[in-house]
């Protein structure tokens, strides 16, 4: 029986012919990395290969590593296997990985979304025979509204809080979500303050994207300075001593999980904005159709439900277990959990 071009083992997604892994979750010799989130780019590999805009991101997060960068659509061969990076539209520097050997083409998406967010290189469908897709939000209940409407709602929420003399605290992951939020906040309403984890990551990305100016919250920041303004903070800051000086404040979270009211209640959030860096149900189906692939492998998310639906539509669909968890595992590192006040 022919060995598949990519296999799933205890270390990650392995290409035996090239002897390398894609987004491995255990230390390996050679790793191709799709993007900078902690569940896909882990410390300990001897060699990292990633898109060139992701190089400073993973260096910031992982420290002194042996990493090289490639451009989108640039092909490179390892033991007669051809690899290339293609835009995933997930966050800045995110990629799909195209793998070709003897006429067979596989594509691993990592994490992706098809809506153009204005800061990431937009997603591009890649023709292939086998498509490995996440399905973090692989249920029909997940249907995103255009981000322009979401950002209008966020700015209106901030303005309303300001009129009541309250500080607005908006939670978003320090890499990706925070910069997407920052890009579309309206600085004419007031000042934008940041938690240290978000400020540090945004400084890494400022050479790539034009963002509004921000002010880092420090121990010297006074409560009166924050009143009526907005604070961008990672989810890990919620409920911490760090936000006590901001009373009176109103909290909000921007996530695909805010589709469900129960998620907001469980997280003790005052307001939820439905904004995800992943595809909704309809985006997943559109992406799969555009590839022309017959074989679909579903990884993290609602894998069983999603694969069952695909089989009913005539696809050769199955699931594989990974250590990727989509929006649930884009958590802050211990370094990023440190507070600055």
Automatic annotation (TrEMBL):
Keywords per UniProt: Exonuclease, Hydrolase, Ligase, Nuclease
Gene Ontology MF terms in the entry: exonuclease activity; ligase activity
InterPro entries given in the database record: MBL, RibonucZ/Hydroxyglut_hydro, Xnuc_lig_assoc
Keyword Transferase: no
PANTHER family hit by this protein: BLL1145 PROTEIN (PTHR11203:SF49), CLEAVAGE AND POLYADENYLATION SPECIFICITY FACTOR FAMILY MEMBER (PTHR11203)
Protein name: Ligase-associated DNA damage response exonuclease
Organism expressing this protein natively: Aquimarina addita
């Amino acid at each position: 029986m022919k060995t598949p071009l990519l296999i799933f083992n205890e270390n990650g997604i392995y290409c035996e012919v090239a002897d390398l892994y894609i987004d491995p979750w255990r230390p390996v010799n050679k790793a191709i990395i799709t993007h900078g989130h902690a569940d896909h780019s882990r410390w300990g590999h001897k060699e990292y290969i990633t898109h060139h805009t992701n190089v400073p991101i993973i260096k910031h997060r992982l420290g002194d590593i042996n990493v090289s960068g490639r451009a989108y659509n640039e092909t490179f061969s390892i033991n007669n296997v051809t690899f290339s990076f293609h835009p995933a539209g997930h966050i800045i520097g995110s990629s799909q990985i195209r793998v070709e050997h003897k006429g067979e083409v596989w594509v691993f998406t990592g994490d992706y979304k098809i809506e153009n967010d204005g800061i990431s290189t937009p997603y591009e469908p890649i023709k292939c025979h086998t498509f490995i897709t996440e399905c973090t939000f692989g249920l029909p209940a997940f249907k995103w509204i255009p981000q322009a409407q979401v950002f209008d709602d966020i700015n209106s929420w901030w303005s309303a809080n300001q009129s009541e003399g309250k500080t607005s605290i908006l939670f978003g992951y320090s890499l990706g979500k925070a910069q997407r939020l920052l890009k579309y906040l309206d600085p004419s309403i007031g000042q934008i303050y940041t938690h240290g984890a978000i400020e540090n990551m945004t400084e890494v990305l400022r050479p790539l994207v034009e963002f509004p100016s921000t002010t880092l919250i420090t121990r010297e920041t006074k409560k009166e300075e924050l009143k009526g303004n907005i604070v961008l903070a990672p989810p890990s800051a919620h409920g911490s001593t760090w936000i006590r000086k901001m009373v009176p404040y109103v909290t909000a979270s921007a996530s695909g999980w805010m589709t469900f009211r129960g998620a907001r209640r469980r997280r003790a959030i005052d307001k939820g904005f439905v904004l995800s860096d992943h595809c909704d149900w309809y985006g997943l189906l559109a992406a799969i159709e555009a590839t022309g692939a017959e074989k679909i492998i579903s990884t993290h998310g609602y894998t069983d439900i999603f694969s069952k639906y695909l089989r009913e539509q005539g696809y050769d669909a199955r699931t594989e277990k990974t250590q990727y968890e989509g929006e649930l595992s884009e958590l802050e590192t211990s370094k990023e959990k440190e507070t600055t006040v």
